[in-house]
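Late entry, evening session. Most of the bench is empty. Finally got around to the prediction I had been postponing all week. Sequence below, unchanged from the version circulated by S.P.
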Amino acid sequence: MVSELRKNGLLDQTLIIVTAKHGQSPIDIQKRTAINDGLPASTVGSSYAFDISDDASLIWLKDPSFTAGVVANLSTPANQAALGIQEIFALQSMANKFNSPLHVKHVQNLLDMQKAGLFKYGGRDSAGDALFASGECAIIHDSSGLRGRLIKEAKFAWAAAPLPYWPDVKDAPKNSILGGASFWVLKSPSRKPDDYKGIAAFFNYINKPEIAAKWSMDTGYVPVTMAAFEIIKKGGYYEKNPGADVAYLQMTRTEPTDNSKGLRLGNMPEIRNIMQEELEKAFQGQQDAKQALDNAVTRGNVVLRNFERTNKS
C-alpha cells in the first residue's frame, strides 16, 4: 500500500493509522471456538462472497436473496457447533427488543413515580443535569462525566453510587454498558499533510497515561486506558474522593454479556430520538409504558430495515 501511494504521489498527503479492528472484544473465552480460515466459505457454499472472522464473523453473500437459505444452513446444530455460532444477526433477527416485560415494568415504574411526585423528566441528553446541580432534585441517574460539573456547582454534600437494579431479574446486577463520545478525523481537500500530523500529535498527547488520568480526574469520565487507571489508583485519588471509581467498578463488576459490551446498531441516533419521542408522550400522559415501547420498537425496526437496504452488500 505504501509503495502504491508513493508511486502515485499520494504518500505525503495520506495519513496512515495502524489500529486494531476488534471493536466487539472482549470475548467470553469459555465459549471460544477456533476455526480454519476456509470453514465459513465451505459451510456457506456457492452463495459465499467474502468473510471477516475473528471474535465475530461478518459474511458477505453474492446476492442478498441468498440470506434466508444461508441463515437456515448456519442454524443447524452441526454447523453451529463447528463454527462456534452463538447468535446470528440477519434479516428480521436484527430488531429492537427493548419492549420486553422487564422494560415495560421499568418505564411504568417511572410513570408511577412521576404521578406520585417522586420523579421528574428533565429533558433529553444532559438537559436534566441542572435539576440536581441546583438542588431541585435529590437523586439523578446520569453519566459519570457529571462529576466535574457537580464539584464546581453543587453547594451541598453529595455522593455517587452504582445504578439500582431489579433484584428479581436473573443474574442481576449486570455490568453497565459502555458508552461515550468519540473523536473522528475526516478528510478534506483543503487540509495539508501538516494538518494530519498535528491531529496525530494531538491524539498521541491525549493518549498519554498521565494526560488520560488527569482528564478522568477532572471530568469524572472513566479512564480510557488501564495505564491511566493505575496512575489514578496509585496516586490515592479514589481513596481521597469516595465514589470517583463507581463508574469503573460498575462496568467491571460482572463478566460482560453480549448486550453489555456496547451497541452495534444501524442508525442508532435516529432510533434513540424515536425512543425519546415515545417516552416523552408517555410522560405527558398520552400513552402507557407498553404502548410507548411497542411504538418505539415498531418505528425503530423501520429504521433498521432502511439501514439494511441502504448498506446491503
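Two things to note before I forget:
DSSP finds 14 helices and two strands in the chain.
The first strand starts at residue 48 and ends at 53.
Will write this up properly tomorrow.
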